[in-house]
Amino acid sequence: MRERSTVELYDHLVVRNPVLRPRRLGHVNLFVSSLAKAREFYSETCGFVEIFEEPLITAAFMSNGNTHHDLGLIEASTTDRVDKDGKVLISAAQRGSKASLNHLGFEMDNEKQLVEAYENLKKLGVKAMRTIDHGLAHSVYMPDPDGNMLEFYADVIDDWRSFWKDSVGKTVTGGWQPALEGADGKPHYPDSFEPDIHPSSPIKSRRVTCATIATSNFKAMLDFYLNVVGLELLPGSDARHAILAGTTGEATLRLQKVEDPKNAAFSNMGIELGQADTLVAAKAYLRSKGYPIQKEENGDGQASFLTMDPDGFGVWFYAPTTNSH
After folding, report:
1. C-alpha dihedral over 230, 235, 239, 242, to 10 degrees?
2. What sign has the CA pseudo-torsion 119, 19, 220, 149?
């Protein structure tokens, strides 16, 4: 399907041998103007459970059991953030001084696959990479052609809940030196999960599944995500809108063409709920909390609506219209 879609829709592209081939989008990490307001929205309102705080970088992480975090929230600052080794992790002169995307986190199958991809990227001349040890995962960071930061990570432990519990009050992020020798070839991501929901929230968020990036550099961005990242082009794509999937086959990234480069940025994320009736309750609750519904859609076996978080990032809530969980 990917090769046929590429020929039909994007005759300037030739799908070669992609380097990374992640499974899916694992998380969205945002710089937020107020961590307190973001916590209230994503946890108390949207139903995600806060599982860890990293005080040194003013960050909170949230998950409902899908992975070790669906959401990372870091308060914007004009001060550099450092890791546990004292090295600058986030330079305020470059990013993170205002509400914006920090990075999109793509889940790899295992550490060995990640290290092999890292070595191949180096052979291709990719130099703008950074490698990080998060304790429960090893990561390679690199920007896309628009400068959006991407994380490609492999879990290295099974029990991430115990890791977070044992790391309370600590800074867990440090440097990592990838090496093929000894790289773990075993997958550590969960095959399935029963979602945990914030007890006081009527919104039954299961997981973050997809992100949308608006770009005025559509051809180069699509080429990068097909041929370097290795995502698959899905049906429903057209010359201004690409729907891309990881190896699980689920839509994980959307590219939306815009004309003005000033409008090129992270646009929104998709959050899966339970059933359609939970979608109705979610809309009513968000309206009662002062979050207007911007748009609604219904079709292809699911219903969805768009609202905005406190910083104006779009959040699409969606649920299947037939029972699938």
Report:
1. -40
2. negative
Cα 244–Cα 247–Cα 250 angle in degrees, nearest 5: 50
Give the separation between CA 75 and CA 32, rounded to whole angstroms.
5
Query: What is the sign, positive or negative, of the torsion defined by CA atoms of 116, 118, 121, 125?
Result: negative
Residue that the structure tokens 């307001």 belong to: 37
What tens digit of pLDDT does each residue of 105-138 get? 999 999 999 999 999 999 888 888 999 999 999 9
Question: Amino acid identity, residue 320?
Answer: P
- Assign 3-class secondary structure to the chain: CHHHHHHHHCCCCCCCCCCCCCCEEEEEEEEECCHHHHHHHHHHHCCCEEEEEEHHHCEEEEECCCCCCCEEEEECCCCCEECCCCCEEECCCCCCCCCEEEEEEEECCCHHHHHHHHHHHHHCCCCCCEEEECCCEEEEEEECCCCCEEEEEEECCCCHHHHHHHCCCCCCCEECCCCCCCCCCCCCCCCCCCCCCCCCCCCCCCEEEEEEEEECCHHHHHHHHHHHHCCEECCCCECCEEEEECCCCCEEEEEEECCCHHHCEEEEEEEECCCHHHHHHHHHHHHHCCCCCCEEEEECCEEEEEEECCCCCEEEEEEECCCCC
pLDDT digits (tens, 9 = 90+) for 281-308: 999 999 999 999 999 999 878 899 999 9
Q: Give Cα separations from 296 to 144, 193, 299 (angstroms).
A: 30, 28, 10
Q: Which is it for the CA torsion 240, 236, 270, 128, positive or negative?
A: negative
Domains of the chain, CATH where assigned = 24-175 (3.10.180.10), 207-320 (3.10.180.10)
Q: Record the tokens describing residue 261, joined without a space.
A: 């480069």
